[in-house]
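#structure-requests
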Amino acid sequence: MRFFLLLLALHAGASWAHNHAQGDIQVRHPWSRATAPGAKVGAGYMEIRNNGTQRDRLLSVSTAVAKRVELHLTEREGEVMKMRQVKVIDIPARERFTLRPGGAHLMLVDIVQPLRKGERFAMTLRFERAGEVEVQFEVQEMGSRHPHH
């Protein structure tokens, strides 16, 4: 019986590590890719759900693993994909916004050490309406295209 309760507690903890909520905002499956030694940038990805009736906006992000975090969108201009920094990311009411490789993402600038597969790190997301959401990112292998559970 103790073993079963321990397994249940570990499973619940692992599930919680992938979902974070504050107010109407839910952050699901935050993850990052491992970086090469000497790399100065990394990226963060996740799904943000706004379960509320009003738009919210991601205003800023901070973490101890990088000197700064920028909000980036990737857009097609003709045949070329271009990445650009934005001041905020709008999260429409009752919708989800996905940050993923090749699309919108968090750019971790001047990382303090390489991100290593299997490690976790904290980030604080600051929303206009929901306030601050503390999130744990799981580092996946280099080249990952989606989070592994």
